[in-house]
Specification:
By secondary structure, the chain is an alpha+beta fold. 11% of the residues lie in helices and 21% in strands.
Length: 119
C-alpha cells in the first residue's frame, strides 16, 4: 500500500558513522553456521588491521561454535557484501574497502557442524 507523506522527511538516522566516536559499524556472519541466528555487529576503528579484527573482534564472537578451533584462516572464502573478496590481513579495514555498516561474510568449506544438511 502506498504511503502519502504530509511533509518532507527530515529525520537523521541514529547510526551514522559520526555517532560512533571514530569507530564504524561492521556486520559479520559465518555462512552455514546456524548457531548464530543473525550477523554480528561491532563498532571497530576503520584503521584496525584486518588480522587484528579477525583475532580480537571476530574470533571471540564465534568461539562458541565447535568448528572455530579448526578454521584455517588462509582458506576462508570471504565476501564483502554480496561480492567475493580477498582481504589483505596486513592492511586496515578501511584499506580493504570495508566501510561503515559493511557486511563481511565468511565461508569455511568442510566446516558445517551445525548445519542440518550439506549446502
Amino acid at each position: 500500500m502506498p504511503v502519502k507523506s504530509i511533509g518532507a522527511y527530515t529525520a537523521t538516522p541514529a547510526d551514522v558513522q559520526a555517532n560512533f566516536h571514530g569507530a564504524q559499524l561492521v556486520y559479520a556472519s559465518w555462512d552455514h553456521h546456524l548457531l548464530f541466528a543473525a550477523p554480528f555487529i561491532m563498532p571497530v576503528p576503520p584503521d584496525m588491521l584486518f588480522k587484528d579484527w579477525v583475532t580480537h573482534a571476530l574470533t571471540p564472537l564465534i568461539a562458541a561454535d565447535p568448528d572455530t578451533p579448526q578454521i584455517d584462516w588462509a582458506t576462508v572464502q570471504w565476501h564483502l557484501g554480496a561480492q567475493p573478496w580477498q582481504p589483505d590481513f596486513e592492511r586496515s579495514l578501511k584499506d580493504n574497502g570495508v566501510r561503515h555498516k559493511a557486511q563481511i561474510r565468511m565461508h569455511t568449506p568442510g566446516l558445517n557442524s551445525l548445519m542440518p544438511f550439506a549446502a
